[in-house]
């Protein structure tokens, strides 16, 4: 077990409006990461794996003269240098979507009579993503054609298979393993953990592709090129690529007519929506259409 012997602190300043309590409510209901963090009143404790080391974080929210602030304590086995602290802060900020500027999204949403109540209900909620796009890729593979409880058990087995835990305020937390850790187990080892030869093969193929990935390119590169890169990963098809673009990378300008989101939109707009009618509504939101879709899912 990794000991939490050194503590470093930093302050994160989300773009307002930001409601940390809404982020925590979402995490409490998100099945893909359920049980992998500690949640409390204005509190999140979680472990991340970055560059071969485990870092635990304890994030607490507060108000500073009317502006939202997140105090972030970082725990590691050795003191973190500035570059490592910056990398952890970036990972936490990306995870919680703290730099999303919702002004334009809210302007369009409030001009949409059916959607305006959703904006009011979720006001200040920033899109909480997977802790990393790599973890999102693995979850997409695990959850394909698989009941949710079984996918959760497979992910639990992967998370707890490696001696990467860290103590954060007396609680032992495990990060999702890095690509190199999965590769170290080989096909037989991963198959033993997940109990599915096909998924084990896909996971290892994804690990091989991802271990040399340029995440900055994935976050900011031309979306068509990023999509093509994702589609080249074994086991990642068009739906999974869109899933990772949105939920792992925060690329919000594209929204496929996912049946669950279409159903959620139909409830909010009070009528059954065809795929074409759904697309027409989504197009009103331009580069924010996936944010619109995510809000619809959260309230459904």
Secondary structure blueprint with pairings:
Blueprint: E1 6-12, H1 20-29, E2 37-40, E3 43-50, E4 53-64, E5 67-76, H2 82-96, H3 103-110, H4 116-121, H5 133-143, H6 148-159, E6 166-168, E7 171-173, H7 179-194, H8 197-210, H9 215-220, H10 223-231, H11 238-247, H12 259-269, H13 275-283, H14 289-299
Antiparallel strand pairs: 1-5, 2-3, 3-4, 4-5, 6-7
Helix pairs in contact: 5-6, 5-8, 5-11, 6-7, 7-8, 10-11, 12-14
3D structure, described in words:
- The longest helix has 16 residues, at 179-194.
- Among the domains are: 6-121, TATA-Binding Protein; 259-299, no CATH class.
- The model has no long low-confidence stretch (mean pLDDT 96).
- It has a five-stranded antiparallel beta sheet with strand order 1-5-4-3-2, covered by helices on one side. It has a two-stranded antiparallel ribbon with strand order 6-7.
- The protein is of the alpha+beta class and 300 residues long.
- Helix content is 49%, strand content 16%.
- The protein contains 14 helices and seven strands.
- A hairpin with a 2-residue loop joins strand 6 and strand 7 (171-173).
């Amino acid at each position: 077990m990794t000991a939490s012997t050194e503590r470093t602190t930093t302050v994160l300043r989300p773009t307002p409006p930001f409601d940390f309590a809404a982020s925590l409510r979402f995490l409490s209901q998100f099945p893909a990461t359920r049980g992998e963090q500690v949640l409390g009143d204005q509190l999140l404790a979680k472990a991340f794996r970055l560059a071969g080391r485990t870092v635990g974080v304890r994030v607490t929210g507060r108000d500073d003269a009317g502006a939202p602030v997140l105090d972030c304590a970082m725990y590691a086995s050795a003191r973190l240098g500035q570059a490592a602290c910056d990398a952890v802060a970036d990972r936490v900020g990306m995870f919680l979507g703290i730099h999303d500027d919702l002004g334009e999204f809210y302007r369009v949403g409030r001009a949409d009579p059916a959607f305006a109540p959703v904006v009011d209900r979720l006001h200040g909620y920033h899109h909480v993503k997977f802790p990393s796009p790599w973890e999102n890729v693995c979850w997409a593979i695990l959850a394909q054609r698989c009941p949710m409880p079984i996918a959760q058990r497979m992910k639990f087995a992967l998370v707890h298979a490696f001696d990467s835990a860290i103590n954060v305020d007396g609680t032992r937390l495990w990060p999702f393993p890095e690509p190199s850790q999965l590769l170290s187990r080989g096909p037989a080892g991963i198959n033993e953990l997940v109990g599915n030869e096909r998924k084990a093969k896909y996971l290892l193929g994804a690990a091989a592709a991802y271990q040399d990935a340029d995440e900055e390119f994935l976050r900011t590169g031309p979306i068509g090129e990023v999509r093509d890169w994702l589609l080249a990963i074994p086991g990642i098809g068009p739906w999974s690529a869109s899933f990772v673009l949105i939920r792992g990378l925060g690329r919000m300008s594209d929204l496929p007519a996912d049946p669950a989101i279409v159903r959620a939109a139909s409830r909010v707009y009070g009528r059954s929506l065809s795929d074409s009618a759904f697309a027409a509504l989504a197009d009103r939101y331009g580069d924010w259409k996936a944010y619109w879709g995510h809000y619809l899912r959260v309230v459904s």
